[in-house]
Amino acid sequence: MEACLFASPAVLTADRLAVALRLDLPTVQAALPLLQEQLERQGGGLRLWQVGEGWQLRTDGRFGAYVASIRGVRPVRLTRAALETLAVIAYRQPVARAVIDEIRGVDCTGVLRMLLERNLVQTLGRADEPGRPLAYGTTPHFLHSFGLRSLSALPTLKDLRALGPSEEPPAESSAESSAGLSAAGGDRV
Amino acid sequence: MPAVQTVHVPLPSLGAGLDPPVLTGVYEGPLDLLLLLIRREGVDVREIPLALICDRYLWWLEGLEAGGEGINVEVAGDYLVLAATLCQLKARELLPPAARSEREAEEADPREALVQRLLEYARYQEAAASLGALEVLDREVFARCPSGPSGDQEGDEPDLPADLPVDGSLGAMGIGLCYAAVLERLRARDVVHAVEAERFSLAATLQWLRGRLVPARPVPLQSLFSQLPDRRQRLHVFLALLEMARREWLDLRQEVQAGGQAGGQAGGQTAPVLLCLRRRVEEEELMALQETV
Question: Crossing angle for the helix pair B50-67 and A174-183, nearest 10 degrees?
Fold first, then answer.
């Protein structure tokens, strides 16, 4: 099974593995997580991932930099704008562009085109809204790319009631900003 | 999430001739900037000190204007809309509740609407951050074959995207990627295309027509067309005739048969269209027209 997974150029479904190994499907389905565990325990360079509808051997994330240099490729880059747009689409799909623009407060045309070109996002027909705008959703490649089993494996979208602590270091001159705060204190409602 | 660099901006004091701040920073839009300002001031999003935040926001915008190598109007526009919203909220709060019109009172609280938008956006920012923290294929982790449309250069044929499904559930984008790969392959073979040169031009056609039409001597359209074997040439003649008719150099006439319509639908036969030049077209006029077409 490991050999088949290694030699396969793409994500392998349990079905195809079963056919190749001349085993019945339940046996293969039971063995896959075992192999996954075994590789994890050994702590070697490879991990078995369950992505989308199948399984794939991938190098361990710890060695990403080395593997990238062997490959001679620049690592995939996703800007914050791209990730934000992707997040809105992933959690809200099918979603029209106007909704994405509204949530992010900026025009997303360029980012959206880039995501479409990278095959992370696809059109899912037209939304049942005035003007019948195109509705966007994520692709199977999106699941593969982010190593997700399905959309339900996405990190849960938190219900924010208040903004969390700033990810920024506190303002350089806190005295000044607190002075500003008290000066403007009367504005609080 | 990439680090956002900012320079702390002191509030402008009254009368101080301070230059607007020049800020370096990458913001993903007005909501992003506003969120950042709120977080930096450490205030509750539901209790935004409007004057403070509004001032800082405007101050930042001024910096954009002063420090920018030219402003992208579209981008700045987005920021200005939010600035206007903030000012509007502030103005609204300065008014005593009694002074607000009934219509305004009935409307949903605009401040609450802004707060909801901010919180919604913050949720997705957080979601984006956790997506970005995942181990992404071809970024942290790698599979046996490159995925994605780039492909490797080993084989003599460009690769199709590695994880296209083989079961026919190929989406529109998958087909697009396949098509791109096919085009790439064709380009590799250095195909030479033969492109037929444009043989007719409207300008030349006008010249040709001028030689065939004489004032006060009608010519049937059909007889003109019968001299032209090429469909594209006929099309050019037709366009040239329309242009001449528009300039009132030419009348298009059709005889009305007794008791019938000009179109002759009833009689089954269409009456011939006659082309009548009203007057001689001068060379200069023709040249002027040729320049415009």
Answer: 120
